[in-house]
């Protein structure tokens, strides 16, 4: 675990943002009665740090070549990124109402038709390869933009991930930071029961990456891990996030299979109240 001595971020402000993202996720899913709610809630802390503290990013200039990139490999986590992009002002909050609807720019599996999306996800296992290519491209173009990637523990079962990991280390892409969301779930249950992925830290390390493993729902730990990664030259960085699916909404945190949650109409009000009360934020 990373120890934070001087955290450069305003954690109170980030907590307010993370709570706003969680409420947006619930709002989107409530309109269709289901969705990848657990993922959106679980990753809200990371997205709050990236979009409201860390990334060099201008919502009015999405094609700015010097911008830091956020690459979402796991298309079905798009609900979380829609929340962050709307909160950041990339598109109006009202547009969240269209999540998952026919003709909407906010599809259940994220794609480049949405402003602010750097890649079309959906087919798992391709994000790391794309992020490696982007990071290499920045270097060749002499840009100091960073590339942040979010991938899942399930994607560690794909061979393409490890080919890309090898390439990232070979080229010494130290402006590439890959977050691995270890939420201990995939569609058919826990990775250990489907195809074991541990020891995750040692695997990345053996592939030549600088590796940290942190509580992925601890805002200060996320900030600190990015500081450490940015200060460590010569190798790409893997930050393994142990997250809780449904984080911030106890009703969903304890669901047994929460890869895709169906919610009864009467449960939404409780879910919202729990998210409002989460993390000790005073409304
Ligand atoms: C290449 C590929 N194989 C299978 C799927 C179907 N699929 C969609 S989500 C998912 C679960 C993957 O687990 P993980 O990525 O860990 O996601 P989480 O359960 O954390 O949402 C699967 C198998 C897919 N989208 N792409």
List the helices and strands and how they pair.
Blueprint: H1 11-32, E1 34-35, H2 37-42, H3 44-54, E2 69-72, H4 78-87, H5 127-140, E3 147-152, H6 159-170, E4 176-182, H7 191-194, H8 200-206, E5 210-215, H9 219-230, E6 237-242, H10 250-253, E7 261-262, H11 267-277
Parallel strand pairs: 2-3, 3-4, 4-6, 5-6
Antiparallel strand pairs: 1-7
The site of thiamine diphosphate has 16 residues, from loops.
Keywords summarizing the entry:
5-stranded parallel sheet, 283 residues, alpha/beta, two-stranded antiparallel ribbon, 40% helix, binds thiamine diphosphate
Summarize the structure.
By secondary structure, the chain is an alpha/beta fold. The protein is 40% helix and 12% strand.
Structural notes for this entry:
There is one protein chain. The protein is of the alpha/beta class. It has one domain: Thiamin diphosphate (ThDP)-binding fold, Pyr/PP domains (Rossmann fold, 3-Layer(aba) Sandwich). The chain contains eleven helices and seven strands. A five-stranded parallel sheet has the order 2-3-4-6-5, with helices on both faces. Strands 1-7 form a two-stranded antiparallel ribbon. Strand 3, helix 6 and strand 4 form a beta-alpha-beta unit. The protein is globular and about 55 Å long. The two termini are 30 Å apart. Bound molecules: thiamine diphosphate (TPP). The site of thiamine diphosphate has 16 residues, from loops.
């Amino acid at each position: 675990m990373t120890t934070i001595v001087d955290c450069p971020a305003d954690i109170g402000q980030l907590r307010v943002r993370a709570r706003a993202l969680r409420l947006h996720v619930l709002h989107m899913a409530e309109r269709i009665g289901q969705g990848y709610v657990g993922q959106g809630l679980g990753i809200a802390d990371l997205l709050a740090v990236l979009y409201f503290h860390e990334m060099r990013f201008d919502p009015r200039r999405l094609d700015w070549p010097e911008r830091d990139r956020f690459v979402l490999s796991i298309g079905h986590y798009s609900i979380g990124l829609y929340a962050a992009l709307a909160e950041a002002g990339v598109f109006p909050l009202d547009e969240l109402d269209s999540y998952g609807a026919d003709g909407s720019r906010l599809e259940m599996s994220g794609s480049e038709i949405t402003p602010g999306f750097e890649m079309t996800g959906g087919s798992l296992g391709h994000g790391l390869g794309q992020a490696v290519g982007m990071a290499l491209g920045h270097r060749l173009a002499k840009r100091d933009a960073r590339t942040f990637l979010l991938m899942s523990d399930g994607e560690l079962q794909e061979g393409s991930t490890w080919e890309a990991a090898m390439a990232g280390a070979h080229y010494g892409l130290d402006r590439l930071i890959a977050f691995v969301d270890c939420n201990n779930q995939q569609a058919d249950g826990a990775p250990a029961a489907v195809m074991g992925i541990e020891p995750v830290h040692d695997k990345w390390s053996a592939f030549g990456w600088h590796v940290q493993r942190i509580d992925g729902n601890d805002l200060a730990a996320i900030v600190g891990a990015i500081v450490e990664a940015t200060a460590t030259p010569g190798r790409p960085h893997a930050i393994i996030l142990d997250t809780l699916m449904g984080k911030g909404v106890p009703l969903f945190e304890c669901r047994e299979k929460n890869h895709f949650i169906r919610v009864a109409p009467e449960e939404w009000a409780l879910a919202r109240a729990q998210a409002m009360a989460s993390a000790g934020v005073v409304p």
